[in-house]
Specification:
The structure is a homodimer.
Chain A (H helix, E strand, L loop, with lengths): L3 H14 L8 E2 L1 H7 L4 H13 L3 E4 L3 E4 L4 H25 L2 H19 L6 H19 L5 H21 L5 H15 L3 H26 L1
Antiparallel strand pairs in A: 1-3, 2-3
Chain A binds a DNA duplex through helix 3.
DNA sequence: ATTAATCAATATTTCAAAAATAAATTATAA
DNA sequence: TTATAATTTATTTTTGAAATATTGATTAAT
């Protein structure tokens, strides 16, 4: 079971990542109260958490805003994700045991299933694809041995994902292939190659997003 | 000027870092209200922010606790700080302009002044040493060009500092020398050597803290 | 016409008090 | 002793209102 607080946290965070609350838009407390039927204090607690996590900007005495989009921000987040995820992947491939390997196989299998039936822009599927995509990347680095590293990475993953989802729904075959490469080299414990394709994976998504950046705003 | 919210945030965070609120201790809302004379909602907002930042643990329906100490946690944080600060330092040494260099010289000078008159365990001085130590490390990486990187690093710096301050007040001449090495190689734009001494700097502090770990709890 | 100052409207911030809900403790019965 | 029920305690959530700051519009002054 969830408390009201934690479930509205999840809802608002989700709505920011999926663009239902648009980048840079003002988060008026009264209006939020209509869409998320909880009390003001609960909403303020949620927004305070989200601002610590970079999804919301809190301007003193002026209220809350969804974090805006910018090229620079996107590039920074992509590079930080590469830095942390590469580091974690390297550790994970050194330490991963049988359980880790089993989970990775399962996560990759589930992701493959959904990626193959994804004929773009099906809203329902995008949301569950997000879930399996995340679980695959998490499974890769799960054996890195550092809870703090995983939690920092999780935050960057979500912030990167927000750009990906809002700017472009899904990148298609290219991304599927990259996932396969990361997967195969991970099972071989070939850290250098796995990291190489992880970088390609994130950088390709970055390029895609940057190209679309001006079109959408 | 500060809002009541942001100034209690600073106070509570400071008290956690300096150990006035002890690791793993329960943060009862009523008691906090006595020590920090603000309303319950303000306190809860603060604790929610601090829990997103890793200083506080929020257990659903069971309240808030100061994040506990553990060897594993300390090691993880030290390694993450090395990872992020090395990365940032490397970028900064590539990009730093005249202003950056001037600020670094100033920051190092101020730090030197205070480090030389630090005859250990003077409580007032520890607090301003923390400030100048932080400003020196920040000055080093200031030209890295990534706001997100600096803000992630700032969080890890504070969490690492909490262990350092609570476990050992000050490490003395050794640390001063390390600061000087980082400084000198930074001015020479010798990233490899600067990073090498940065690692030594953090790892020595880590060893020190780990050695003392059992004595204090 | 532009700038400054004033006033009203709007929104955020903060507080206080109480109802709802869950956890922890104690007392009771098997 | 164990399990269950009742009590106490603490957190979570809501409500409503007061204090404070910002915004926008109106008016006055340069």
């Amino acid at each position: 079971m969830d408390t009201i607080g934690s479930s509205t946290y999840k809802k608002i965070k989700r709505d920011i990542i999926f663009g239902e609350l648009k980048p840079a838009s003002k988060l008026k407390l009264d209006e939020l109260k209509k869409n998320y039927p909880v009390s003001l204090s609960t909403i303020r607690e949620t927004l305070n958490r989200l601002s610590s996590e970079g999804f919301v900007i809190a301007e003193e005495q002026r209220g809350f805003f969804v974090s805006p989009f910018s090229k620079e921000d996107l590039i920074e987040i992509a590079n930080l994700r590469i830095l942390l995820e590469s580091y974690a992947l390297n550790l994970s491939l050194k330490n991963g045991d049988t359980d880790w390997e089993g989970n990775l196989v399962a996560a990759h299998h589930k992701l493959s299933l959904i990626e193959n039936k994804m004929d773009n822009k099906n809203k329902d599927i995008v949301e569950s694809w997000k879930k399996y995509d995340w679980e695959f990347h998490l499974a890769c680095i799960a054996a890195c041995g550092s809870k703090n590293l995983i939690s920092l990475h999780s935050n960057l993953f979500d912030r990167y994902l927000r750009y990906q989802i809002i700017l472009l729904q899904f990148r298609g075959d290219e991304a599927i292939d990259e996932h396969n490469q990361i997967y195969n080299f991970s099972l071989k414990r070939d850290a250098d190659s796995a990291i190489k394709f992880l970088k390609v994976h994130i950088e390709k998504g970055l390029e895609h997003a940057l190209a679309l950046f001006k079109e959408q705003t």
